[in-house]
Amino acid sequence: MRYQYITMKRGKSALPCRICSFCLKKALALALLALTLSLTSIMTHAAHSTATAQEVTEQAPQQPLRIVSLAPHLTEWAFSLGLGDNLVGVSDYSDYPEQAKTIQRVADFQGADIARIVALKPDLILAWDGGNKPQDIHKLSSMGLKVFKSKVENIADIASEIKKLGAITNSQKKASTLADNFIQKLTALNHEYAKTTLTPVFYYSWTTPLMTVGPDAWANKLLHVCGAQTLFYDSPVDYPQVALKDVLTRQPQALVAASKSARADLEGFWADHRSFLNAPLIVVNPDITSRFSLRLINELKLLCEGIN
Prior knowledge:
This protein is α/β, with parallel strands linked by helices. 50% of the residues lie in helices and 13% in strands. The protein contains eleven helices and ten strands. It has helices at residues 2-59, 72-80, 114-119, 134-142, 157-168, 172-192, 218-225, 244-250, 263-270, 286-289, 296-307, and strands at 67-69, 87-91, 105-108, 111-112, 124-128, 147-150, 199-204, 228-230, 254-258, 281-284. The strands form two sheets. It has a six-stranded mixed β-sheet, sandwiched between helices. Strand 7 (199-204), helix 7 and strand 8 form a beta-alpha-beta unit. It is elongated. Keywords: Signal. This is ABC transporter substrate-binding protein. InterPro entries: ABC_Transporter_SBP (IPR050902), ABC_transptr_periplasmic_BD (IPR002491), Vit_B12_bind_prot (IPR054828). Residues 1-46 form the signal peptide.
């Protein structure tokens, strides 16, 4: 009986312990399972929220770049790069393409209208280093506005400057295509019309007073591409006023009128002197030859063909 008593005693006292241990383990397992499910739900929700935020960010339309141009050729560059709709202000004489004529004017020969430009809240201002007033460019920059300052000294610079503009307006591919095509055509003209002796040409824009170009003028750089040079290559200034008798004495081999006047009127000026001067008259568009425009290359081709 003692042995049975002990066994029963142990049984009575051991059974509850085993039950409690089992219950505790089961409760702990259930708690862990619940915690795991809860964490999984939270992580899934967080991942979904993050993905949604990224989708919203990627799908949110960017605000269009607001651009102000302070020179006609810069306006043309913007249109060439497909940024015409981004222009909110342009300079006087921004007349190409046709759409440019409808854009608000913010600069003229007297300078930039700073107050009007600021009111337009531009993201980018296109300025001409060498054409716009330095104090205007400095003022706009000092106000925290982003200014693209472009400088063209040689014909090839047109291509390199357009590439720079493309780089800051997310239009690199378009800019590279346009620039490479421009350089390719320019190189072809240089090779075709290269000469040891340059043809003397009288280049002028108007006759009252009669003015021409000197050796460092932009127009003379165009003439060089055509194997020619200004008749007044020895002028100490870029745009000298000359006498008609000096033109006749120097005997140019071609006359180039950068003018929008009727051809008949231009020919009329030389009519009385044709017994002394047989040079052909070539007419070019001054809005193209005097601008750093991509259109220049086609006008330059016509000029070279006329001279040669």
